[in-house]
Amino acid sequence: MKRNKLLETQLQELLPEALRNNELLQPFLDAISNSFDAFEKDIELSEKAFRTTEEEYGQINAQLKNEIKIKEASIVQLKGAVAEISNTQLSENNNELLNIASYLKTQVSLRIEAEQLLKDQKTFYEQILNQIPADIAIINQYHRYLFVNPTAISNPEVREWIIGRTDEDFHRYRGKPVENSIKRRQHFDEVIKSGKKQEWEEKLITEDGREEYHLRILHPVYNSLGEFEIMIIYGFNITERKKIEEKVKLNESRYRSIFDNSQALICTHDLNGLILEVNRSAVKSLGYETNELVGTYLFDLLPEDKKDAFKESYLDVIKKEGKAEGIMVTLSKQNKKLYLLYQNYLVNNDKEAPYVIGFSQDITARIEAERALKKSEEKYRNIIANMNLGLVEVNPQEEIIYANNSFCKMSGYSQEELIGKNATRLLLSETTTQLVADIIKRRKEGQADANELRVKNKKGELKWWLISGAPSFDEEGKFKGSIGIHLDITAHKELEEQLRKAKADAEFSAKAKEIFLANMSHEIRTPMNGIMGISGLLLKTQLDKQQKLYLDTIRNAANNLLIILNDVLDFSKIESGNVKLEYIAFDLKTLLGNAAQIVKYKAEEKNVAIQLHYDNNIADALFGDPYRLNQVLMNLLSNAIKFTDEGMVEMDCQLQETTDNKQQILFSVKDTGIGMSPGFLHHLFDKFSQEDESITRKFGGTGLGMSITQQLVEIMGGIIHVRSKKSVGTNISFSLSFPVAKREDIEATVQRPVNVNMLDGKSILHVEDNEMNRLLTGTILSHYGAQVTEAEDGYKAIEILEAQKQQFDLILMDIHMPGKDGLETARYIRKHIDNTIPIIALTANAFAQESEKCIAAGMNDFIAKPFEEEKLVGLIASWLVKTNEIPGKIHRKTRSAAPVRKASVKSGKKHFDIEVMKAYFPDDIPALHELMKICEKELTKSMAAIAVSVRDKNLPELKQQAHKLKGSALMSGMEILSQLAYELEQLTLFEDKKITDMEQAVKTEIQYLLNVLNEHQQTS
């Protein structure tokens, strides 16, 4: 092995080679070599250690030197701090830290004592805050709680928990919405920004759901440098205060309302009369605005002659006695004197300065009236003594105690002859004794009235006096007699008698006119029925061309004659107010087209063109009376063609407006005919008017057409206008309003062809004295399968019916027959033979009165001659054939076949037309029933009200109830009841017998209608 260099050198120098190479010594030498190597390493390590230690000691020395410097600087700073804190200067040479440590120990001890004192003070103040009955909390700038007293949070665990937490944490902890905490933070920020405390009211909901109100106050606290340190929050539960405030506010509102709305004039003023407050009544009476009166002295509102005594008579009195009352004269803004009756009171309490509240009433009108009364008393005393009306005062025994000059002249007695005499025995006849007794009884009951009495004057002459009397009572309410004013109405009564006679003559004349027209209608229509009927039957036979021409001429002539007759009758109906309008669905366009088609041939004969202009915006179906509208248009078209020799006739129909499911439509007929002069235009609608006699001779006509046209237009709710120029032409227009209908409404009224077998097997008794009419009617009915038995008068009809050899389904009854007429025969049949068989009247009298007579006699229906074939058959079918089997347009009946009670009605009316009510609710049965129930209720009320009025003999109330019943009955389709009510309404005197009979008639009719309404509700 390789030995240590130092050992190898010494072996070379000191040990012989033999020994060096001796093998036995080799291990020993190797061990020594290893020892040398180890020693050298130890030395190397030792040296290295010394070197490291030397470096470390150098670093430590440097650190120690640096620490010495730092400590020396610290000692200097400590000395400065001690000197600054204790105001004691330490010696510069005294570097002993022990002295400084001793001083600091002393200061720390003092600080500990101060902190303990501060802690004790904090505990003391917290104890105080904990006892205060208000919510108190302290938070820092981070909104975290530093302190909360038990009033704010009663639970000590929660109170301890909340320290260091925010208000939002607290709301979440309690499971409450954080809206309040957000508002609190907003107020916190505002306080920090403004530096001023802030307060607000906060509404809270307690755990049991109650509402509480709390007043919250934020008060910021700043240090000596002006920096924010803490926020003190305190508050109070003001729930009870809020409730009291609400009550106070409500009471104030009530008192203010009473103050402002009182009819009395109310004001307050101070002890010097300075107005503090006034209410609306005072402002209104005085004519000022509120701000003009408040701040004004009462003194300034007084007239000059009242100012001097104001202080002594008012202000001094109320200060001394606490109240004042009387009449105060003031001036309004318009300088008008006002008299105020006042009661004023002094209000004196500890809370406010004393003031006066005054209540007054404006009695200016009363004062002025009293003055006017006093001023005119003498004047009226003289007037009463000399007036044209007789004035008498009597005592309770009817003895005259005063009579004026006029009464003396009226009676013929002097005052000496009258005073002390019994007025009743002196002036009235025995026939009026009971009436006078009733009057005296009413006087004693306190009633005033007026009566017309027959009296006898001193000369024995009978006179009519209107006596208006009133009772007189003393201050205790005891009856002390009557005062009566008398007017001689003898001349008026004589005039009344003349008017009554004139009225009777006029009624007789009107009746004669009615009878004449009825007879004329009968005499013309009876042969016309035969002419038109026979000619119609002949047209169904085989005819040559000439025969057909002759028959057409006969029918045209008959139709023209019938038109003239209808004009006269229509005019009479309109004049008497008996025109009734239909209310059915119709197609206006078709109606106009048919009208134009009818006059087309006449126009073509004269080479006059016809043009029809129709507005397609008009509804396909309308509700109204197509027959009367057609009559108006046909009249206008016929006149236009009649008076036009060349040119054209235009019929125009335009939609004006649509509102509330109604259409306003303008109709006009324009021609290029002869025109009219301006002077005649004013008379165009007069009765029997034509421009000159040549017109009548050339064109014919009655002169009634335009009058009828105008009145029909007005009945339908329109106004007719005419523009015309001689030799240029005429334009006649009118505007009407129609409710909009549906196409299916029209389909329900469309006339369908009559089935020729629809009367198969029906047995009909025809009672008619005219052989031709029996032939005509029998032929027509036979054509439809009916078996017709004829009777020439009423006796024969009764004989046939009583023989009972044949069962009849229906009777056709002529009215005007020799011997027993149709009305008598019908009454006899109903009473003695059959009260169920349908009876249809055949009458040539087209007046409504005639049809009413038929119904009253017990007939079921009627048809006027000359009748159209299909109308007669359709009417018969409506009574004999099931509804679903009737192919033609049939007017359904709702009357019972039993005899109908007679009614005192002046024109043809129906007891109850159900179609009138159905028109209100066409397809709504429940609504119709509801309307009927309301109608029943109103009828019962009206019956009771009329009975009370009759019992009390209250004619004005009776007339008012009758007027109300008249309108409602007419609107409900109860025409007879409406007419009875109308007759009641026209009464001018209370005649017991007459009114009792009329009341009974109304009562009977209402009871009948109530039964009918009930039946309809049960069966429909």
UniProtKB/TrEMBL annotation:
Residues 924-1020 form the HPt domain. At low DSF concentrations, interacts with RpfF. This is Sensory/regulatory protein RpfC. The modification Phosphohistidine is found at H963. Its main location: membrane. GO terms for biological process: regulation of DNA-templated transcription. It is found in: Cell membrane. The modification 4-aspartylphosphate is found at D814. InterPro entries: CheY-like_superfamily (IPR011006), HATPase_C_sf (IPR036890), HATPase_dom (IPR003594), His_kinase_dom (IPR005467), HisK_dim/P_dom (IPR003661), HisK_dim/P_sf (IPR036097), HPT_dom_sf (IPR036641), PAC (IPR001610). Its EC number is 2.7.13.3. PANTHER family: HYBRID SIGNAL TRANSDUCTION HISTIDINE KINASE J. Residues 198-250, 449-501 form the PAC domain. It comes from the Bacteria. It catalyses: ATP + protein L-histidine = ADP + protein N-phospho-L-histidine. Pfam families: HATPase_c, HisKA, Hpt, PAS, PAS_9, Response_reg. It is a multi-pass membrane protein. CDD domains: HATPase_EvgS-ArcB-TorS-like, HisKA, HPT, PAS, REC_hyHK_CKI1_RcsC-like. Residues 763-880 form the Response regulatory domain. It comes from Taibaiella lutea. One of its GO terms (cellular component) is plasma membrane.
